[in-house]
Amino acid sequence: MVRGKGRTALTWLCDVILVNLGIILSFLIRFSGKVPSTNFRAYLNIALWVSLISGSVLYFSGLYEEVEEESSFDIFYKIFISVSLSSIIIVALSFYLRNLPFPRTVFVIAWILEILLISAHHSYLFYSRQRKIPPKRLLVIGTDEEEFIRESKRQSSPKYEIVGLVNADAEVENLKRTIRKGKVQGVIISDLSLERSKLLDIIFGCQQEGLSVYLRPGLYEVMMGRLEMTHIGDIPLIKLKDEPLKGRDKALKGIMDFSLSLLILLFSSPLLFLIPLLIKMESKGPFLYRQKRVGEKERIYEIYKFRSMIENAEERTGPILAKDTDERVTKVGNLLRRTHLDELPQLFNILRGEMSLIGPRPERPVFVEEFKRKIPGYSRRFMVKPGITGLAQLYGNYDTSAEKKIKYDIAYINNWSLGLDLKILFMSMEIVLRMRK
């Protein structure tokens, strides 16, 4: 449950303190209040490691993230798994070090106490928060406003308040004005018979306003599986993902990007010196190519690549999209493209926090403006950092249209997982090693 970064950090710190309190109380219980100094000193020697291990496992469990339909049991389950895992790691470490001269029963008692203490802490926070949070203000787009109002009133502690109805045929800009005026926090799209382009315009328009978007599903949508479900009374709703990467997921992806980029740069360092020499030997001009691209949240940044074309390649043609066969590509550049080594300098973009290893490929501002006008939902790709490789690069070609690439990009964003990133990374490595396009 996220309550702002400061309060989340304070909650996490309290949990780490409770972990250590559980261990101290377990000593007192095991030794009937008379703890031998030798035993307790052994704990003090590893207290920092206990705090780091337990704190890390608790953080990456997702305990501190906001989940709309999270119950008290869901919170207890995360605590149970986190404490159990951290306890196993600490016990394994103690056996490996063989320097903890006290009974292992201390760990068993501490495991029980830590679960009880942290669960009590989060139960208090959960129920305090439930009492303070006002109902979420929702706007119905389509029909059936009265049914939603009736069902919301039937709930003993309504989480949602229906504040109005907007016709599904309304223009997206008019819809945005209504949302701002009514201080709306989310929308329910109850009419799924809309044209796909219109439905996407409404969904992405509302998400740009920072709103939660819910769909009233038919049988087809329910059959899709792995959906985040909620309800108003007995009306089922599907909650669409509004922010694909946050909290622990964003931290994990960032750690993987940074560590793997450093590792690849270390092993490829001879190439970083050789490639510029080859480029300079074949053609005049700089060996490094810089170009403006659109990144996360539509921020403009400068991408780095080894130059694979003649100098000032767009002087006569103007900005054009890359092609599979391009006369402007040099011989060295053709080799770099076939091996994908022209992308190597983008690892520095990753270290600067501008890119990721895996994600939608960044486009130039001039093309982005065109695609945003022509392709519904194109802006959603800017919810994550652009990447060196992605699904569109695995399954598409140089000449694959932007309309097809955006489907791969949105599929990646909506289904992100660390496992998916690793799968894309290994598949991309195979393409590089086999020199496939």
TrEMBL record:
Transmembrane segments: none annotated. It is found in: Membrane. GO terms for cellular component: membrane. It comes from the Bacteria. Pfam families: Bac_transf. It is a multi-pass membrane protein. InterPro entries: Bact_transf, EPS_sugar_tfrase. Keywords: Membrane, Transferase, Transmembrane, Transmembrane helix. The keyword Membrane applies. Residues 253-433 form the Bacterial sugar transferase domain. Belongs to the bacterial sugar transferase family. PANTHER family: COLANIC BIOSYNTHESIS UDP-GLUCOSE LIPID CARRIER TRANSFERASE (PTHR30576), UNDECAPRENYL-PHOSPHATE N-ACETYLGALACTOSAMINYL 1-PHOSPHATE TRANSFERASE-RELATED (PTHR30576:SF0). NCBIfam families: EPS_sugtrans (TIGR03025). This is Bacterial sugar transferase domain-containing protein. It comes from Aerophobetes bacterium.
